[in-house]
Amino acid sequence: MYNAHSHTQPHRQQPSLLLVDDKPEQLRLLVEALRAHAYKISVAFDGFQGYDRAVSILPDLIILDVHMPRMDGFALCRRLKANPATAHIPVLFLSSASEVDTKLAGLTGGGVDYILKPYEPEEVVARVRIHLALVAQSAANADSATPELAAPMDEDSVLVRAVQQALTADLSLTPRLADIATQLGVNERRISRAFRKRLDMSPFEYLRQERMKKACQLLAETTLTIVVISQEVGFANAANFATAFREYTSTSPSDYRHNALSL
After folding, report:
1. How far is the C-alpha of 127 from the C-alpha of 176, rounded, in Å?
2. What is the pTM (predicted TM-score) of this model?
3. pLDDT tens, 117-153?
4. Is the separation of the CB atoms in 105 and 124 below 8 Å?
5. Gap between the terminal Cα atoms of the chain
6. CA 201 – CA 206 distance, rounded (Å)
7. For the structural domain made of 205-262, what CATH number should be given?
8. 16-149 belongs to which CATH class?
């Protein structure tokens, strides 16, 4: 069994890595190779434990298996990227799944690298070194506070933020809440409770609000036609958009644009 190391100091000379895999025995050679390069190693055995450990120790880099029970690697990565305290941590996926769609899901979900199993441990070590160097270079060029100083966020807030990101990724589309729940390793009721508790609205009331905000921006700042704007914010036709817009702003899209341009 591997020993977990917990460190909370923001400036660590010895990089700390978190490995998350439900079959840790398969990581033995990789762990040995990483330790040989003086990395401090912590291991978690599923997505939930991995998330808790990541928030607790704030490692410099996380290596995730994709297929795990309870919460898979993609869901874990989305949660990590929704939490300001862990969003900056680079995530590398290790997986035997070689399909292009699976690789793209990992990279678009926040991963910085996708390494196929079986792998050579030294190749993983080299990629770890590269990504840690990129983070160090980015930090050296930044004038802002270090990412570790980000305010902690409770689980409901992290979940709400992750769902918000999924809902607003493309406002022209209306994703299924069931699909988002699956992507985040929770059920729909859990999402709805978190939204009601944190925002006092449902996920799709939030989506409607964001669509109307975007519509207001496009009407005021662009010359796009109302038909095009209605499509951009997810309406099948301009009439439905105009009705929803009037309910939200108490004015028509054309009057809103005229008033914005006259200011």
Report:
1. 36
2. 0.77
3. 889 999 999 999 999 999 888 877 765 555 455 666 8
4. no
5. 67
6. 7
7. 1.10.10.60
8. alpha beta
